[in-house]
Structures are given as structure tokens and as C-alpha cells.
Amino acid sequence: MPQSDWPKTFSCEFFPPITAEGFAKLQAARQELLVMHPAYFSVTYGAGGSTRDRTVEVVLDIQANSGVPATPHLTCIASTRSSVRELLNYYKAHGIRRIVALRGDMPSGMRDPGEFRYANELVGFIREEFGDHFHLEVAAYPEYHPQASNPEQDLQNFQRKVDAGANSAITQYFYNPDAYFRFIDQCTRRGIDIPIVPGIMPITNFTQLARFSDACGAEIPRWIRKKLESFGDDRDAIRAFGLDAVSALCRTLLDGGAPGLHFYTMNQTGLTLAISERLGLLTAN
Ligand code: FAD
Fold first, then answer.
1. Which residue minimizes the CA distance to atom 30 of ligand 1?
2. Which residue CA neighbors atom 51 of ligand 1 most closely?
3. I need a surface site. Which of 59, 77, 160, 283 has the fewest CB within 10 A?
């Protein structure tokens, strides 16, 4: 069915903090975000299991204390079927119903790729072992994954995840809405019929954004890059411009039928809330 017919979901992503102070800040942040009525809070996972304990701790805290379902990310590179099974059984026992199922990237210094090569294998494994217990989210790349041999192959690989049993997808962030709409058209032509929710990265810091974007294959359009460069260290100007640009992007996506938005919050609430307010998503309980 068309993307616009799926119920709209708004969700927020966190990373597991390292310090107790960071953990307390995250607890405060997630409380502040309740006004946008998130469908779930997701928590990233370091490929190779580097954040395993911290991710689990944050997930269980969200699940038990926030009133919003927690959704752990799970990467499969450099892991085994038994370790994945064990973690998922643990999550299941704690009432978790949704997982973001990913391949991840091989951590530097690690050699053994483990028992899964790609995310579609993880999705298939979870379906085999846990039936329909988990709602499975997978990653989608409107501007294509940096390692994809070509766009067609990347789409085909996305389809493998859907065929293996993914229920919905979250995209890598992007600032060009046409890339998303084109990607949706291509998916529709292939018969892919799941909600594909745009991932939204608020803009706070140009240097950091440029570094992330180079690594993950997201394009910063020239007009945005030039404006951000021109602000230098003027954080207020970057914030104000970023708020305008990203709010306009979100408006275009929702008006064009996107089935919700997934905010990469970076554990900060300010811009996610400001954007949500401009979109009219903040309503009293
Ligand atoms: P895949 O879908 O397996 O794709 C990886 C590459 O392999 C692509 O180029 C694809 O075209 C190709 N490919 C896929 N299947 C096949 C196949 N069968 N044969 C040949 N080629 C194939 N990373 C983390 O470490 N932790 C996180 O918590 C995390 N969360 C994320 C959340 C979202 C919403 C997104 C978009 C990304 C996230 N990432 C995270 C980053 C992600 O792990 C990387 O982008 C990673 O490089 C790819 O993961 P994937 O699940 O998309 O892999």
C-alpha cells in the first residue's frame, strides 16, 4: 500500500552513554521527549558487541521506567548464532517486542566476521527462532549504502531483508527529499510493501556532521554545506539555520506521504523537540 496509508510513527534514537552522568542525562532527555508521544525509543549497539552491556542496561531502563517501548538495535557482524539467540531470549523475557536488525561494520582490529554476513541473514534467523514475536526494523539507504556495488544491487539487497521478514525500515539520514521519494518509487515498483520511515539528523555541528556523512555515505547538499561553512563557530547561527532546513525537510517528507519520522537525537532533546513543535507533533497528553 502507499507509504501515506501506513499509520505514522515518530520515534527517537539514543546511544548508550559511557558514564553514570551520561546515563542520568539520558534519563532526563527521554522524559522530555514524551511530549512527542514516541512510538518507541531505540538504542544503538556497537558492532561486535562493544556496547552490549551498556545497550542492554539502557534498553531495560527505558522498558521498565519510561512508559515507551524500548527497541534495541542489534548488529550481527562478528557474532554467533548462539550469542544472538541468548541476547534475544533475554530481551524477550523482559518484554521487548521490536528490534532494529543490522549487519553493522567490522570493528577495527577484529578479524573473525562471525556467523552472519549480511542483515538479511540476521532477519531470517530471528524469524526462524522467534517467529513473529519481534517487530523487525531494518536499515534503508535512499542515497545507497557506501559499500553497495551499484544502486540496483543495493535495492535488491534491501529487498532481501524485506523478503526475509522485516516489518518496516528506517532510513539513513539524508537532506535531499527527492532521494527518499525516488527510493520509495523504486521500492514500490519492486513490490516492497512495508513502511519506510525517514531517519532525521538534526544539525548542530558542521565538522561532526561532515565527518559522519563522509563515513556513512549521506550527502550534505552544497547549499547546506556552504551555509554551514559560512557560520564558522557561530553555534547559534548553525542551530537556527539547521532548525529551519531540517524542519522544512520533515514537512516535505510528511506532506509527501512519509509514514513518520525517526530522530537521531544524539542524546540531545533541544532540536528534536524544536522540529517536532514546528511540525505540530507536540500535543498535551
Ligand atoms: P546490510 O543490509 O547487510 O547491507 C550492507 C551492505 O552489504 C550493503 O552495501 C548491501 O548492499 C550489501 N549486501 C547486503 N546483503 C547482501 C548480500 N546478500 N549479498 C551481497 N551484498 C549484500 N551501526 C551500528 O554499528 N550500530 C547501530 O546501532 C546502528 N544503527 C543503525 C540504525 C539505522 C537506522 C541505520 C540506517 C544504520 C545503523 N547502523 C548502525 C549502521 C549500519 O550498521 C551500517 O550502515 C552497516 O554498514 C550496514 O548495516 P545494514 O544492516 O544496512 O547491512
1. 44
2. 102
3. 283
The string of pLDDT tens digits covering residues 266-281 is 999 999 999 999 999 9
In a domain, 246, yes or no: yes
285 within some domain: no
Q: Is residue 242 part of a domain?
A: yes
* CATH code: domain of residue 184: 3.20.20.220
Residue showing cell 559560512 = 230
pLDDT band, very low/low/confident/very high, at 110 (cuts 50, 70, 90):
confident
Top-confidence residue, 237 or 49: 237
Domain count, the chain: 1
Q: Is 21 in the active site?
A: no
Domain span including residue 135? 3-278
pTM above 0.85, yes or no: yes
Position in ligand 1 atom list of the atom nearest CA 101: 51
Closest atom, ligand 1, to C-alpha of 199: 34
Q: How far is the CA of 103 from the centre of ligand 1 (A)?
A: 5
Q: What angle do CA 256, 13, 268 make, to 5 degrees?
A: 105
| Tens digit of each residue's pLDDT (9 = 90 or more) over 188-229 | 999 999 999 999 999 999 999 999 999 999 999 999 999 999
Q: Is residue 206 part of a domain?
A: yes
